[in-house]
Write a structure and sequence with these properties.
Jelly Rolls, Arc Repressor Mutant, subunit A, seven-stranded mixed sheet, four-stranded antiparallel sheet, 10 helices
């Protein structure tokens, strides 16, 4: 499975602001994946959200299954254990966010008091789209200022609280305009689609199209198209013997060198490395924050 991780290293270890630490996308199919909340020395909080398969959580003696579109909030240290059970038969794929800071802990307490440790978020819910967006920005070296990071994390926590309070925002069905644009991308990704074509499919101008995608998807139309293309390229690399050049052409890239550059940026490995590792290569990126 694809794995993309970004770890934030702060020069000021006593940073009083809200700090994002690791953020990433991983999967596991090993029963050695088991984390005991009382056996970890550091103090931080965690949100982990299931994309596929399922995980398990024991929280203060109670067992929870964490299936697709569900996640959990945890304080560390605390009385809990989360783990993978091979009886699930499919890998547990998830995205996660680790954070710390004196202002984070009371807000995390509020989140858990409102919803308990396990919550259900739709894939298009604002907190989930924001996580994907944060990973993309981190990959573009866009989160390098500790004040911007603190503000981004605070905004993310508020989006969770808003959703838990039943406010009409994330989690509702995508507008038809966005659905039409996504349908075009998912069926025509092999063509050199332009922003004008995508906007035309949505029935809006390109500026409004970008605003709609930012609000409901958490990414630009072109970035969403690129994610669709790279996801299809990953499938072809794993399931076919097509050459990298052929896969680049069939997924809408007119230049195999550019395809390789984009693939490495999003996946953390070259197309050939990904194929040779059967998609299991881990990307470990570290961002140093002054």
């Amino acid at each position: 499975m694809l794995k993309t991780n970004y770890e934030f290293r702060y020069s000021d270890q006593n940073n009083p602001l809200m700090a994002i630490r690791p953020i990433g996308w991983e999967s596991t199919a090993s029963e050695t994946y088991r984390w005991d909340g009382m056996a970890r020395d550091d103090k931080f909080v965690l949100f982990q959200y299931t994309l596929a398969g399922e995980g398990h959580l024991i929280y203060h003696g109670r067992h929870y299954t964490v299936p697709k579109n569900h996640g959990f909030f945890l304080h560390i240290p605390d009385s809990h254990c989360y783990y993978y059970n091979s009886a699930s038969k499919t890998p547990w794929e998830y995205i996660f966010l680790v954070a710390s800071g004196t202002h984070v802990f009371p807000l995390w307490h509020d989140l858990m008091a409102k919803a308990g440790p396990v919550v259900s978020f739709k894939p298009q819910a604002r907190p989930i789209s924001m996580l994907w967006d944060m990973m993309q920005i981190a990959g573009d070296n866009g989160l390098r200022d500790k004040y911007e990071i603190s503000l981004t994390l605070y905004d993310w926590i508020l989006s969770c609280l808003r959703l838990m309070d039943g406010m009409p925002d994330a989690g509702k069905p995508l507008p038809e305009s966005i659905q039409r644009a996504l349908q075009l991308m998912e069926t025509q990704y092999h063509r050199l689609l332009t922003l004008d074509e995508i906007a035309a499919a949505a029935g809006v101008n390109k500026h409004h199209c970008c605003r709609l995608f930012a609000k409901h998807i958490g990414a630009t139309p072109i970035h969403q198209l690129t994610k669709i293309r790279i996801a299809e390229a990953c499938r072809l690399l794993r399931q076919t013997n097509e050459t990298v050049v052929a896969i680049a052409a069939s997924t809408g890239f007119d230049n195999s060198s550019y395809f390789g550059k984009v693939f490495r940026k999003m996946v953390g490995a070259s197309p050939q490395q990904f194929r040779e590792q059967d998609g299991s290569l881990i990307s470990d990126n570290q961002l140093f924050i002054n």
